[in-house]
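CORE FACILITY INTAKE
Project code: CF-77B
Contact: R.S. (postdoc)
Sample description: multi-component assembly, two entities in total
Requested service: structural model of the whole complex
Turnaround: standard
Below are the sequence entries exactly as provided by the requester. Do not edit them.
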Amino acid sequence: MKLNAKEVHLTGAALCRGIAIGTPFFFTVIEDILPEFTLSKQEIEQEILRYSRAVNFCKKDIEKLRAQLEKEGILEGAAILEAHLQIMQDPLITTEIEKEIRRTQKNSEYVFQTAIKKYEKKFNAIRDPLFRERFKDIQDLSRRILGYLRNSVRIILTEVPPGSVVFAHELTTSDVAEACPDNIVAFITETGGETSHAAIVAKAKGIPFVSNIKVETLDPSKIQRVVVDGRTGGIILNPTSETEAYYLDLQKKLSYYFSALQKAASLAAETIDGYRVVLSANIDTPEELSISKKYGASGVGLLRSEYALLTREGLPDEETQLALYLQVVNQMQDKHVVIRTFDVGGDKLLVNFPQDNEAQTFLGCRAIRFLLKEREIFKTQLRAILRSNVYGNVRVLFPMISALSELEEAKSIMNEVTEELQEQGIEIPYSIPIGCMIEVPSAAIIADLLAQQCDFLSIGTNDLVQYSMAVDRGNQHLHGMYTQTDPSVIRLIKLIATEANHYGIPVSVCGEVAADPRFTPLLLGLGIHELSVSSRHIPMIKHAIRSTRIVEASLLAEKVLSLSTAQEIMELLMKEYQKNVPEDCFYNC
Amino acid sequence: MKQVFQVHVRNSMGLHTRPATVIVKLLQDCKSNVLFTCKKETVNAKSILGILMLAATKNSKIIVTVDGGDAEETKVKLIEAFENKFWEELA
C-alpha cells in the first residue's frame, strides 16, 4: 500500500537526541471518562444512526486491513480480522446496543462503553485463559468504534505496534513511562519542553523526542514512514529511499559510537591530568541499578523517591518504603545512596493526594513545602530512610529549599524522628548526612548560609533555570527562552560551587546539564566535584570527563563567565566539545 | 416449532473464535431463534461474543434450543457442524 507521497521536512524542538525511523502511530489522549447524557425522544433515531455509522466506518477500516494482509500473504492475520468483522456484526454490538440506546435514552458512547464493561466482566470471570484472552479482540474493536464516535480514545502506549513513531498532542510522564522502546522508536508532540518530565523519562529510555510539531494538522492516512532526528528536531515524513538510507547509516555510526563508549564505561571517571570526579547515577527505581553498576557508577546521586510512589495505589507505608530503599541500599553496598524526599507538586502530581489548582503550580506547595505541611507523610518517609541507613551509606536530600528556615525545620523534624526511633528501640546509625537541593535562586544566593547548616549541596539545574529565568519549562510558547547557558544560571552555579568549596562540603550537579557532555568541562571548571546523571548517560559523561584537562576546564569556565549571552556561551561550549570529542556524532551535528 | 437437543463439543480448541464464526455464519440465514445453554449460561447462538462467553471447552455439552419455522433443518445443520468439528480438523 505504498503511496507515492512526497517527502516532507518539518522542524520542531529537539527534546531527546537520537535517530529513529519508523511508522506513524497517532496517539489521541483524551479523558478516560466518556460523557454521559440523556437524549430527548426526537434525538434517539439520530443517535442510533450516528452509532451505526461509527460501526460501519470501523468495518470498512478492518475490511481494508484484512484485504491488505491477505494480499501480503499474512493469512493468519487476515483470519483474525475476518473474525473481527463477524464480531462487528454481532447482535451484541449492533441490535443490542441500539435497543439499549432506545431503552435508556443515553448517548451511544455511554451505552456502548457500559456494554463493553459488562462483557469485560463476563470474560474476566472465565477461567480458561484462551477464552479470556478473546476480550482483547473486543477491546480492540471497541476502541476503534469509540474513536469514530468521539475521535478520542485513550490507548495506552504499551499496546503500540513495534517500530512506531508516536504522534500526540501532549504526553504525560506516565504515558512515556509505559512506553516500551522496542515498540516505540520516537515521540513527536505538539507541546512539551526539553526538561518536562515526559522528556526526561523518554531520555532515560533512550527514545528520541521532538516537540513543537503541529500534530493536529497532519493527515495520518498520508504518512507511511517517518524519520526523526532528535539531535536537530527535524522530522521527515515519507522519506525517499535515499533519505532513509542516509539515516540508517547515521544510526549505524551512532550505535558504533555508543558501543565504543560502553566498552570504555568501566574506566575511572578522571580527567586526562588525573582529576577524579564522582560520577553517580540518578535513578527512579531499583531496576535501573544493574545498568548503573555495569557502567561503574560511584553511587546513587539521586534516588527520586516519588517515582516509585506515583505508580502505586495510595501512599506507601513505612515498611513498603523501607523495602524499596533497601533494594537500592543493599545493591550499592558501601557506595553512597542519596535519597531525595518526595518532590511532589508542580508538574509531578501526586495522583492519590487531592490538591487544588494553586498547589499544582511550580510556585505553589510542592516538595519540602508540601512535606513540612504534611508532617505525617514526611515523618513516615524519614523513618524509612533512617532505618535503611543501617544497611549502607545513605544520605538524605531535601528538595526545593528556598530559605534557611525550611532547612532548619526539616532538620528539627529529622531530630524528632530520630528520637522517636531510638525510644522505640529501633536501631539506626548515629547520624546521617543531610543535603539541600539548590534549585531556587534564593537558595543559591544564600548558599553560604545553607552550606554551614548541612553536609552537602546538590544543584538541580532544571528548576534553577526555570526559576531564575521565570520560564515554565513545559511551555511551548517560551521555547528558546529556557536556556541552560544563560549567564545568570552559570553565575549561580559558580556561586554555589564556590561557597560549598569554601565550607568544605561536596557539591554535585544532578540536572540535565550534568548529562550533557558539552557542559562537562565547564562544570568541572566551575568547581563541581560530582555529577549525577541517568545511568545510560554515564558512559558518555565519563568519556567527556576523560577527554578534559582540568586546567583547560578552569580557563574555559573563566572565559564562559566573561561572556554575556546564552547563545555565545552555547556556541563556545559546542566549539570546545567539537575540538575535544570530535568522534561524537550524537552531539556534534 | 421448537427443537431442544444436546450437542458435544468435539474439537480440541472448544468453541473458540473460529468455530464460533462458523456457527454464526451457518445461522446467518436461519429464521429461528437459536439459544445455546452451557454451564447454566444461555446465550444467543447468532452472536460470536455470546458463544465465546460460554467458554465451552472440548467435551462440553451444550443444550441447543431452536424455535421457529426452520427449526428442523437448523438442527440438522448444527449437529453436522459439531460432529465434523466445524471442518477445522480431521473428523
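Facility notes:
- Residues 44-71 of chain A form the longest helix (28 residues).
- Chain A has three domains: 8-29+157-257, 41-150, 274-303+320-340+395-580.
Invoice: internal transfer
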